[in-house]
Amino acid sequence: MPGPVTQGTWSALLDLVLPADCPGCAEPGATRALCGPCAAALASATPRRVRPEPEPPGLPRCVALAAYAGTLRGALLAYKERGRHGLAGPLGERLADVVAAAAGPSGRLVLVPVPATAAAARGRYGDHMRRLAGQAAAALRRRGRPAAVAHPLRALPRPDSAGLSSADRLRVAAGAFALSAGRLPALRAAVAAGARPVLVDDVVTTGATLAAVAGVLRAAGVDPQVAAVLAATRRRASWV
Ligand SMILES: [Zn+2]
Which pLDDT band holds residue 1 (cuts at 50, 70, 90)? Predict the structure, then answer.
């Protein structure tokens, strides 16, 4: 039996019958996921190390593609909030570049996406990071790099963190994730076989979420030393 028509489904249906505006610049009638100049802007960004200020304890070494602004911000919002799933391909390709920059040029990888809460996944027509991590791993494999995705975590219901202080965000984030015990052995086996675990997320702001996820994994015996994100908010983070 089909589920309810979500906002994302509706948006995706509309995209089939109406020419969609470019999500990067709102140029009307883009025929592809992004218009030419926006696709070029996304392609030209270079992954760099980023460090939130203050840096939360336990945050893995974090690499981001670009600031959360302009084309990248527009594309991420359209992908997450308006169900423009065609953007998963180009965003996943660039996430693969960030993963490679964070983890080094060779070796097996296992990507661990930050999970969405069940409520967020419903509101956004699916777990957007799960889909993006799959696209990034596929892009890495096309380039000849062994890469898998593991889902050892689930997100617990939590209050909206908008407007919280850094300390409050850390406290909320620390209780926001739990292990899916049945999925841990696959991740442990991959790491034992030499795969490097890499956390992946869309946007880093305070780093509280990534630090919390890393802490849960470390307590389970898996140490993600690097994290790859698409965007870093300018207000909170500095490029290094
Ligand atoms: Zn555009």
Answer: very low
